[in-house]
Design a protein that fits this description.
173 residues, alpha/beta, 5 strands, globular, binds zinc ion, tRNA processing, EC 3.5.4.33, tRNA-specific adenosine deaminase, CMP_dCMP_dom, hydrolase
């Protein structure tokens, strides 16, 4: 069998223990953080994303793969949204939630519209690169085809600290 590099979400090496509570329940945001940390260890900007189905089941999870795949569009959100849709046989994601450690960029916010994601919960705000609460504010634009419910600032401090530490280390190396 030939291995084909596709836009498959890759289960983190830590799945599920790092993100699981003692009762075995996996908290989606903790899993997104685990994906972000795994991305950082691969030299990627630490962003992780998870898509949760209507019953609370985790459909997909991914971290950034832009460096590894030489693909600037391989953002965690894009990979997780694609995988979730694939798993659901192409069904739109209007009854699903996207958890992501950083405010989505304009590309990912635009993709979220196309995937019809129902809800976006993100960690750190991104005044420079964000496209939801900053920059183009995509969902607030007139004519936006679909407006997901958005909750920002979930575990914001932790998400900010993770990004700052990554960029500090990168500057020093
Ligand atoms: Zn993005």
């Amino acid at each position: 069998m030939v291995a084909v590099r596709g836009y498959r979400a890759v289960m983190p090496a830590s799945f599920p223990p790092a993100a699981a509570r003692p009762d075995g329940v996996v908290d989606p945001m903790s899993l997104a953080f685990a994906e972000a940390r795994a991305a950082a260890s691969r030299g990627e900007v630490p962003v992780g994303a998870v898509v949760v189905g209507p019953d609370g089941a985790i459909l997909s999870c991914a971290g950034n793969r832009s460096e590894e795949w030489h693909d600037p569009s391989a953002h965690a959100e894009m990979l997780a949204l694609r995988e979730a849709t694939r798993i659901r046989g192409g069904q739109r994601l209007s009854d699903c939630a996207l958890y992501v450690t950083l405010e989505p960029c304009p590309m990912c916010a635009g993709a979220a519209v196309h995937f019809r994601i129902g809800r976006i919960l993100f960690g750190a705000y991104d005044p420079k690169g964000g496209g939801v609460d900053h920059g183009p504010r995509l969902f607030a634009r007139p004519g936006c085809l679909h407006r997901p419910e958005v909750i920002g600032g979930l575990r914001e401090r932790e998400a900010q600290d993770m990004l700052r530490a990554f960029f500090r280390n990168r500057r020093m190396s």
